């Protein structure tokens, strides 16, 4: 029972920190300064107002208003997802690793949609975290994680050279993050899935007239969907062609 409570709190804290990054990084580039403040009057918040889930209950002492409702909703969904991972995956550490991975890729994708940028702070720290999981817990094995991170970065770096900058430099860093957590085999599945989804979406937007040929489309959301799809389906590409 204690483990479920810990996972629930961990999920809520990850969502709370994600909300902080989502609103702070595009504006100031810092997640530490200035201190947390009210969304309405920008006065400093008390410590108890920073608590995940519970903090939203308390009103601002200056203006008497609560924060955005999206905060507790996102925290509750993230907490429920963390508990689900604990139930669905065979080992608690595997559930914790998946929760951390989802934190990095979902936050990066949301920031890319919002700002058009992939922040190196998240990609690099996420890659390090993935390699540490591989080194300490063998998830995935380090001999798959290191080639996964390297090949993911190299693939998008070469693609950027071939397209003359048509691919963002941040996509290479993000692919390295995914490769570190997934390993090179699962990264192949994630990339294939993401290009299928992204290509279909791009074709739809072009045919509908909502995008033009040179319009920028953030790719990290598609790679995020590909990574999640690979987590759910396993090495579907290798199974399809009966590769070992």
Q: Can you put this structure into words, describing what you see?
A:
- The protein is 67% helix and 0% strand.
- The chain has two domains: 1-87, no CATH class; 89-244, no CATH class.
- The protein has eight helices and no strands.
- It has helices spanning 2-24, 70-88, 92-115, 120-137, 142-162, 169-207, 220-233, 236-240.
- The mean pLDDT is 84.
- The relative contact order is 0.10.
- The longest helix is centred in the C-terminal third of the chain and has 39 residues, at 169-207.
- The chain has 244 residues and is an all-alpha fold.
Keywords:
244 residues, mainly alpha, 2 domains, 67% helix, globular
Chain-wise SSE layout:
Blueprint: H1 2-24, H2 70-88, H3 92-115, H4 120-137, H5 142-162, H6 169-207, H7 220-233, H8 236-240
Helix pairs in contact: 1-2, 1-3, 2-3, 3-4, 3-6, 3-7, 4-5, 4-6, 5-6, 6-7
